[in-house]
Amino acid sequence: MGAGPRMLVLLVAVAIHAGTVQAQSGDAEAGRVVFGECEGCHEIGAGAKHGIGPQLNGLFGRLAASHETFAYSPAFLRLRDRGLVWDEATLEQLLADPDTLVPGSPMSFDGLPDAVDRRNLVAFLRGIGDGSGIARAGVEQDHGIDPAVLAIRGDAEYGAWLSGECVTCHQADGGDAGIPSIVRWPVDRFVIAMHAYRSGRRDHPVMQMIARRLGDEEIAALAAFFENPGE
Q1: What is the structure's pLDDT at 142?
Q2: Among 29, 196, 208, 228, which residue's Cβ finds the most Cβ atoms within 10 Å?
């Protein structure tokens, strides 16, 4: 009988330890859902491409801002120069308070306040590897846009004329001081983002107002212009 209380204490300690390990490791499947906060700018999984932000396959253990084919902002290039490598600790810092880790970042992301969400997202990203084993998680899968709209070939010259309103906020040279750059976005990502504002799937009152004033041809024209504004 004397061993009973000690055994109970041991079992409780084991249960607490197991719960702590599970909480620290995160739930990758739940993290896949949390990734919805990121998919407007980042792709991941098989066939992922750079878009507004770089694709995130193979993120763990990689030097920050190290994709040679992506034009990083000065804020992220400073992380690379510091030798920052993405792992559980550095991603936790980024997800908790991006402004502190990357001052001057162009990301339109304020951080995830919930620590469980952060752990789950880190677990999801940690398990991706090269992305060959999962379907692409980008917004293309559920944007709801008629394929005929995405197929519209925009008139870049018309887009240049329309762009005057855009560059009152976004820098025409691609700078990112305070407002994210929209220069050299892939056409489909630009169109998808604008239609998301127009439908209310993206929440920004000013962008919603602007997008709702634009027709499909005008959005396509802006997308064509901003993809290669210097040409």
Answers
A1: 47
A2: 196
